[in-house]
Amino acid sequence: MDQILGIDVGASGIKGALVDLKKGKLSGERFRVPTPQPATPEAMAEAFAEIVRYFNYSGPIGCGFPSIVKNGVCLSAANIDQAWIGANIEEVFGKASGCRVYATNDADAAGIAEMRHGVGQGENGLVFLITIGSGLGSALFYKGMMIPNTELGHLLWTNNKVAEQWCSSGARERLKIGRKEWARRFNEYLHHLERLFTPDLIILGGGESKFFDQYQQFFDVKARVIPAQLLNNAGIIGAAAYAAEQ
Ligand code: BGC
Q1: Cis before 38? omega within 30
Q2: Does domain 3-109+233-245 have CATH number 3.40.50.1820?
Q3: CA–CA gap between residue 151 and residue 9 (Å, rounded)
Q4: CA 224, CA 123: separation in Å to the nearest integer?
Q5: Distance between Cα 2 and ligand 1 center (Å)
Q6: C-alpha torsion sign, points 98, 102, 105, 107
Q7: Which SS3 state, helix, strand or coil, does residue 138 take?
């Protein structure tokens, strides 16, 4: 199969596109629907099915999902409705769309895409991809091999808060802090990761990666820090690549 529909489920939008797996690129336009609020399984299943109908698609689908995903089951719900916990994402979306769905964590999907087709190609050391959006997602690779569901956006931080409540884009908007203050916080977060893991490379993805030039000067960790190349399409491309492998 050369082309698979990839769908990136996020806290604010659900985006899909057909992915050319050989080139590791979108083979057409993206289609986005806003994530329903509250983001319950029923409401999100309908939004998911709308995307599949838009592409008039009936093959296998790769799905990046913003939670811990183990054997297709959702095990956490930081930025989606709590009703998701324990639900089988592959079954819920599969039933709604009539397609076989393969689900994986959204940051892991983005990491797979960047390692195969983006800035991570040929990187053999310890690599992190951190997605910065409504939440903070993480993907960890060593010698190209991924350790799934790392959830490093949930490291405990000052005042016992999880890191993503302190330095995600969601937190920046909610707490109304400027980009400079945000970058100072994020730099501290990077130092914390560095103390724990000594990475060789940290790739920054998610919506915030577009603004890398505005804040990179505030980072001073030893690891190389670079923006993701596939930007916001990484989640879609990686989800499709994940489905192709299953
Ligand atoms: C979730 C992760 C997810 C990240 C980015 C976090 O709140 O716990 O599973 O990867 O947000 O969406």
Answers
A1: yes
A2: no
A3: 16
A4: 12
A5: 29
A6: negative
A7: strand
- HSE-up (13 A, CA, CB side) for residue 64: 35
Q: Which CATH number is correct for 122-228, 1.10.3720.10, 3.30.420.40, 1.10.357.10, 3.40.50.2300? A: 3.30.420.40
Tell me the mean pLDDT in the region 216-240.
Answer: 95
Q: How far apart are CA 102 and CA 95, in angstroms?
A: 13
Atom of ligand 1 nearest to the CA of 108: 10
72 lines ligand 1 (CB under 6 A): no
Residue 149 CA to ligand 1 center (angstroms) comes to 9
Nearest-angstrom CA–CA distance, 99 and 109? 19
∠5-92-105 over CA atoms, to 5°?
60
Nearest-CA residue for atom 6 of ligand 1: 135
pLDDT tens digit sequence for 164-180: 999 999 999 999 999 99
Asked whether 135 lines ligand 1 (CB < 6 A), one says yes
Dihedral (CA of 31, 79, 234, 59) sign: negative
pLDDT 10s digits, 31-50: 999 999 999 999 999 999 99
How many of the other CB atoms lie within 10 Å of CB of 80? 25
